[in-house]
Amino acid sequence: MRIGIDIGGTHTDGVLVDGSRLIAAAKAPTHHDNLLESINQVVQAVLVDQDPVRVRTVNLSTTLTTNAIITGKTEPVGMLVAAGPGIAPKHYRIGDHYHIIYGSLDHLGTETLALDEQDLEEAIAACREQGVTCFGVASKFSPRNPAHENRMVEALAGTADFISCGHLVSGQLNFGRRIHTLYYNSAVWRTFRAFTAALTASLKGFRLEAEVNILKADGGTMPLARAQEMPVQSIFSGPAASVMGILATCPADQDLLMLDIGGTTSDIALFAGGEPLLEREGIAIQERPTLVRAIHVESIGIGGDSLIQITDGQITTGPQRLGPCMAAGGPAPSLMDALNVAGMAAFGDVDRSRQGLAALAADNQMAPEQLAQQAIEAALDALTTKIDALIRTVNTKPVYTIHEILTDRAIAPARLIAIGGPAAVFRDLLADRLGMEVMVPPLHGVTNAIGAALTRTTSHLALTADTARGRLSVPMLGIFRPVARGFSLQDATAEARKLLAADLAETGVTMAADEIQITQADAFNMVDGGYTSGKNIRVVAQVRPAVIARLDDTTTTVRIAGSP
Amino acid sequence: MLKATTSLGVIFFPAFDWAISPTHPEREERLLYTQDQFREEGLFDIEGISEHRPLFATDQDIMRAHFCFPSVEAICTESHRISAGGAIQAARLVLEGETRRAFALVRPPGHHAMKVVHGNRGFCNINIEAVMIEWIRERYGRKRIAIVDTDCHHGDGTQDVYWHDPDVLFISLHQDGRTLYPGSGFPYENGGPRALGKTINLPLPPRTSDEGYLYAIEQVVLPILADFKPDLVINSAGQDNHYSDPITNMQFSAQGYARLNELLKPDIAVLEGGYSIKGALPYVNLGICLAMAGCEYSGVREPDYNSAALRESPETMETIRQTCGYVLDTYFHPPMGDFEKEGDSFIRERKIYYDTDGILEKQREELKDCDQCRGLRLIKTSSSHLLPCLGVELPIDCCPACEREGYEAFARSGKEFLVSQLLDQKNKQFRYLPKK
């Protein structure tokens, strides 16, 4: 059995799943200053009459790191950054302890300027003086050669409680994103560690002996031990949980769209052949791009509470929200009120909706029904435009080979799955407008927790080999070792699979070899002075986000746990 | 975080699965390290710099610019269509206002491909700038366009395509043709009788470095552009003037290339040659992108850059100054060339060698000396591999008499020629005889 917990902005949801059966579901208010309390309440509720020892897995999606960053409850981070030529490192300045260390590597990983020991010493002394104990170390091109980062880590011995080290975060090249990722990772490390310690203790209290995994923004999980090293990966896991919830509750094996309609905004995600599309490089945190892998989710300012306005005869819906809709006691007419007036919904106090729209319509010499209709159209226009743009962007993403240009399959979703409060109301409207089948699955009240429960571990690694120089590197695993001249692309893909499987096994996850996908496998003939000198090989292997089972069509009463 | 002051669309298409041959300079590896540099520098995370995929050039797109014999398919593989499609995407971005500027960082290159194409010359099959320009003129009407070719080799293909077109100003800066392929591009090459002064050649001595190159830009190119007042400036952006390039002898740097773009402010740049794939391209391409986007680029330099060691000698600078003075004058006062005439047509007879494919072409061009329009052009061409073929070109301002004569020549060409191709810019008719 598996427990899935999703800590949301308002509610914390929990489910207990056995195979493909939903056994129990519970909801409790989220206590932002005591998340553990909310977790305990839902765990207790779903375990009623169950044997906790049978629970093998607890998967948790938490807003802990997201909230810590948004509310500024992070700790200072000493950033040690070695860059050299190119775009100046000052452009990535982040936090109050950002130190630039002289020294550089080139794109092949060759040292072109030695790391300046005096700069390093001064930077560390300055951090020590200001009581900084969490660090991030980054050098440009460190995935090609970790020497400068390793030296900085070494120099921090005795000063640091925790160090995030660039090449271990991702094998992907992107210096700015590397810096931002390291910063946020170290900034939330202590908070996250305290939370997981308390969580572990608390779950023991329930006699749970399950392995505990933390949900990531890419829709997969990571074992708790990994999460303690890379807490930043737990950020923005909420939307990912909801995407995985769709996968766990709906037939989703073709191209399809997901629309999660909320009060203020709606989230749109796209599935290609049933797989959620990921961000190309990583998600942005506070508008800073990072290397945190994430499901690509587009937000649009259209929701049930979107404000209806008339400016110069032009009717607009959203993106502003002044409060709940009038039907729920809000101050101004919103999209939900328009749906009430148009007879498409009967939510809350329909009379208040009528009064609100009638007043606004009268000011503009129109009938309330006409206003309602046009406000709904405006919202649908905005949604359609956003969906079309998303599909176009995905279908025109850059590619680098002739083969891809000629064979790339265009993604063409024929179905949309709508979830969230007002989803049912929008079903026919969206079907008409988009010319797609629109499904509103049941269970949407705890979809996120189901997604959390049923998703599996994801992981990836990048391997590069340069047979001319005889070097193989897998930066994320800290592997930089010699390789034979005859090392081939086939050898490289086999090695990447093996290393990824071994790394997962180390954290207790067994993954069948065919579950590991090779997403890039290129070998370039390298030529020096007119002769072939070797091969430049690049391989990326991943375990993609997927659910381990699809839920049966059974429904379960959701228990309300804790105080309302 | 950096922001672009001028938005820039980059069509980055390294064609990682295409090479002329495994060890040819034009091989899969060519833009690999440029991509590494772009990724590590986070170029596409800069607000205002976006990455795009190429479009795909159709037969019609190519037939607007070229006479391909025996057929478009025989000349063009998918790689050439995609490379040209990359240039077209750049044009689309700029002309539709999606980005202010665009850089087609694509391969294979194109500037050695001439009007008539029998095969590959100097790594080029079709002229991707020309295909792009004709695409622009097809959709956006007649425009004044300036092409500044900063590849180290003379852009003899582009020069040939626009030799007779006064709407297109072609300026090539290159290493002196007496010392480098293709051995042309001398100041007296000034354009055909109807477009005199619209072809400008500025040969630079070997070992020209930043100071000399930028002197030529400031003293010759910019004044000519100021006078010509083009609607669009296109840079054929070869990167082989770099001091580390293995097949040329110049001493230009990444800083120099960036400054060049800052001065030139091209609307569209299209990659041409440049084969120092590790030591130059990653830095030069980064410098060009940053300069085109109006971003600060002072930190972009090669690890072994040493401006003092690269500086040109006083003698070299003196040669450059003299050439510049002379070349500037060829724009404002082009000397009347001794154009050969037979009857009422200007005649050019040439032999053209396709070095990559080992083809020798024999060509006779007849340009009608018409006082009503630029004149009908007939190109009779055969090669070591192909029986005589005919190209019939009607200019954009074609007069009724030339139009009639051109269509008649095309219609009766079946008897004398293996294949003929019609390129009617006025009525936008582009087709082959026999029909393909």
Features:
heterodimer, A: alpha/beta, seven-stranded mixed β-sheet, six-stranded mixed β-sheet, 28 strands, 26% strand, B: 436 residues, alpha/beta, Arginase, Chain A, 2 domains, eight-stranded parallel β-sheet
Could you provide a short overview of the structure?
With 564 residues, chain A is α/β, with parallel strands linked by helices. Among the domains of chain A are: 1-250 and 442-457 and 551-564, no CATH class; 459-543, no CATH class. Chain A has 15 helices and 28 strands.
Description of the structure:
The complex is a heterodimer of chains A (about 575) and B (about 425). Chain A is α/β, with parallel strands linked by helices. Chain A is built from 15 helices and 28 strands. In chain A, helix 9 (about 335-340) crosses helix 10 and helix 9 (about 335-340) crosses helix 11 (about 370-395). By secondary structure, chain B is α/β, with parallel strands linked by helices. Chain B has two domains: about 5-330, Histone deacetylase domain (Arginase, Chain A), CATH 3.40.800; about 340-435, no CATH class. Chain B is built from twelve helices and 17 strands. In chain B, strand 12 (about 345-355) and strand 13 (about 360-370) form a beta hairpin. The N and C termini of chain B lie far apart (about 55 Å). The interface of A and B includes residues 172 and 531 of A.
CATH topology of the largest domain in chain B: Arginase, Chain A
Kindly report how far apart the N and C termini of chain B lie.
54 Å
Strand elements of chain A, count: 28
Number of domains of chain B: 2
Structural class of chain B: alpha/beta
Helical fraction of chain A: 25-40%
Major sheet size, sense and barrel closure of chain A: 7 strands, mixed
Tell me the fraction of residues in β-strands of chain B, as a range.
15-25%
**Residues in helix, % of chain B:** 25-40%
What ranges of chain A have pLDDT less than 50 throughout 5 or more consecutive residues? none
**Total number of helical segments of chain A?**
15
Based on secondary structure, the structural category of chain A is alpha/beta
Across the major sheet of chain A, the strand order is 12-11-4-1-2-3-28
Would you identify the CATH H-level superfamily of the largest domain in chain B? Histone deacetylase domain
Sheet having the most strands of chain B:
8 strands, parallel
